Amino acid sequence: MVSPELFLQHIKESPHYFYPEVDWQTIEDELAETVTISNSRKVKYYEVPIAFDIEVTSHIHNGEKLAWMYCWQLSIQGYVILGRTWAEFQEVYDHLVEMFQPDEKTRLLIYIQNLAYEFQFICHRFEWESVFCLKERKPIKAITKEWVEFRCSYMLSGFSLEVIGKNLQRYKIEKLKGDLDYDVVRHHKSPLKKTEWKYCINDVQVVVAYIQETAENDGGYHKIPLTKTGYVREYCRNECLNAKNFRKFIHLLNIDFEEYKQLKRSFAGGFTHANWHYSDRTLYNMDSFDFTSSYPAVMVMEKFPMSSSRQVDIRTEEQFENCLKQYCCLFDIEIEGLDGWDAPDHILSYSKCRHVKEAIINNGRIIEAERIITTVTEVDYESLLKFYKWKRHRIFNMRVYDKAYLPTCFIRSILQLYQDKTELKDVAGKEVEYLKSKGMINSAYGMAVTDIIRDEDTFDEVWIKTKPDGNEAIEKYNKSKKRFLFYPWGVWVTAYARANLFSGILEFGEDYVYSDTDSVKGLNADRHMHYIEEYNEKVYEKLQKACEFHKIDIAMTRPKTKEGIEKPLGVWDYDGHYTRFKTLGAKRYMTEKCNKKGELEVGITVAGLSKKDAMNHIADTAEAKMVSPFSLFTDELYIPKGETGKNIHSYIDYEITASITDAYGITANIHEYSAIYMEPADYSLSLEEGYLRLLRGQKLQEI
Fold first, then answer.
1. Which of 160, 288, 367, 343 is nearest to 589 (CA)?
2. Fewest beta carbons less than 10 Å away: which of 92, 102, 132, 660?
3. Tell me, what's the pLDDT at 443?
């Protein structure tokens, strides 16, 4: 691997060559002296940072959506090669293959910031050994027949180039802004200014700097995972599988295919919703509270399924109640005469129910229904009892699991990550460790609910979807020697976290306005501080019991920041005051609060919109009309193209050729085997008709 000093010099100077004027001898001489091969018993990698990127014009030509590459850039160890055509890139690619001679066991890595985008342009330009995808058109790894492995740096970091640049510690280089106008029609003969080339060079230099820094931190290229979740998975797997008797224990926890389908039916993520009584109204002087690391907290302090399941034939209500008290329970429930009108919100998702009859829906949640069937855990059932009344119910497909704390080795891993995240924040010299621990604690829950059975998408001239055999996939899961998790754990994590959130919604009652996974926003906060304090005391008690059981120092659940401020795990924490607040339903709200300078600042959160771009448009419009931004935040809100911060992708899966005249009057022939046409998206905020009727009815009642 190249020395940090030499690599830093390249990043600062960004030595670049326009193809074909490439000084290959200088590059090869340096690589011969510096490039090593990773020390791995399985697949090895040449330890050299390489990044590739293209710039594209999307243009409607003769009424047809077309897109084509007009320049590309490849950085290898900080040397940047620039080109204009695919033929030029093919020659550079062939040169790299000849230089390194990768094979099945020793591969050459090339990182692309958004592989899903570039892959659409290169998918028919190479022959592929294999393409690994999370879903169709979303490859995270693509290996050519020459054993060059393209990987996605976005899936590894989870960040945009701008954020990656800001987070770099040793190789400081930030993404440039605004130096390349994407609205200008260009092709490979179009002139590019120095500032535009600098923008292109900068993009690949940010990626190679990130990969170089990551490889140094991780101890080699073979240790870099495909995705950011891979870090926490590897860390926790090592901690658990190296613990005494863990392997024997985990393989006592098995599921079958029918059970997996039932678990999938019961699984739900975080609860995000608005109190419809306050929807479409501007409210004043609200406060927000959120949990500190909600999911990690319940993983530590609650009890989970700790056996394979046993099916129970429920014959009496008493038998049912006893099961709820003693075990983790999973069951189907049929409810008749469901009524939730008196509750501050409605927690039962319409999408998680089946055989629904005569239901009234509140923004995707059921208020009342003549009949529904759904699948729940005992935790979910207890929540339903607090929010709904019903005439009768029937329990069937009941499964029970022994209930206990998660394994000590797993809990220690979670707490160590939380402690590191808290104690390392803003500590000089520990920036890398902080960022890594922060990312890992945030991903710790996600790995527990990774689908065991999912469609396999791959590419072989066309996209191919394969449905795996469910029984075979479950058997493989049960027998896997690498397994350290049990799928039901993830199902109960979110169930416990939702129940905790629901307690806050119930407490705030008529003062409750909005909730989102781990936070509650409401009016008259002073009326509810006793609940906050009592809840937090209960959390301390639960954590104390869990730590005593695991023989873990309770201090790990209450680490201190650099300033000595204690950050207890899982408690309600004050999240701020809003001078104004308005919601139009789940993931749709506008806020006004004081920033750090003491100035009032308006912000917006709407799924599908850039917070910054959309708010800038609304603020400008409000100023021009001399009205409040809140008055524009309605069901009739429209954000035009170019102001939303979002784009629409149209996939072109056929060969295209055309004669294009660019913005400078220069004509050239373009040719792509496949492409993506990208255009700015507009946005219309439209509420579902049923929700609108509900809101109108509420206003009529108020009148």
1. 288
2. 132
3. 81
